[in-house]
# Entry
Amino acid sequence: MSSFLIPHSGLTLEIRCLDLEDVHIHEEIVPEMLERLAESIENDKVLKHPVIVDAASHVVLDGMHRVAAMKMIGCVRIACCLVDYMDKRIKIGRWYRTVKGEAVSRCGDLLAEASIPQVACSRTCQEHIDAGEAEAAIESPQTHILIPSSNRGLIEAYRTVKRLEEIFRSHGCSVDYSTEADAFARLRDGKIDAVLLTPLIDKETVVAEALKGNVFVHKATRHVIPARPLNIDVPLELLRDERVPLEVVNSRLSEILRGRVVTRFPANSLIDGRRYEEETFVFS
# Structure
C-alpha cells in the first residue's frame, strides 16, 4: 500500500488514506462542533490535517470530529497519520474539568437533589480516583467529595462525569477542560472554584471499546503523540470518489506530499495560532 513516511526517533508517522467505514472513533461527537467543522472543511476544499490513527486497529486517537465531518460532507476516505499506539512514547492522559461559579459551594446538595451518591474522601481525591474507587471526584478549598465506583466500567463512569458537568452548567457554572497539573494550579491561584477529577483510561480499553462501537464522552482521553504532521491539505475531490481504488488514491496522495516542502518545528511551537506540545512536521 502506497504511503508517505516520516521517520521520527524510531516512531514512524505513516500518512495514507483509509476508507471512512474502516476507522473507529472512541469519543462522542458534539453536534455544534461538528457543524462548524464540516462547514469549515467544505469551504477550504481540503482536509488540512490528518487524523491520528492506531495502525493496528484503525482506532482514531485524535480527530473524532474530522471523521464525522468528512462523512457529513460526502467523503468516503480520510487522510490519516498511522502510528503504533502501543509504543510507550505515545502517552494517554485525561482531562480534568475546571468549574467556576457560586453553585460550587452547594455541590453536595446539588448531587443529593440529582440522586447521585457521594461519600467523603478518606485520602486525597486523586488517590481514590487512581485506585479505581470512584467514578469521579470534586475538590475545592472547602469540599472533597467522591462519587463511588458503581463497577459498571469506564464508559459509564464518564457518563457520570458528563452528568456532573451538566448539573454545574445548569446552575450557572462555567466548566472547562485542563490537564491535571494545570487544573490544580488554577485552583490554588483562585482562578476556579473546583476541580472535577476524572478516572484514568488505558490504551487497551480505548481500543476494545471503540472496536465494539462504544464511545466515551467528549474530552475523556488526552493523547500525547511525540510528533504530528500538519497542513497536508488533501483535496476533498480525492476523498469523495468511491469509484477510484484506494491504492490509486494513496499513490496520488504520496505524489502530492512528495512535491511539498516539510519543515520540522520543535515542541511547544506556535503554529496557526495554536501551541503544540509535540514536535510538528508542517507541509507547505
Summary: The two ends are 24 Å apart (CA to CA). The CA atoms of residues 54 and 83 lie 5 Å apart. The first strand starts at residue 4 and ends at 6. The longest helix spans residues 154-170.
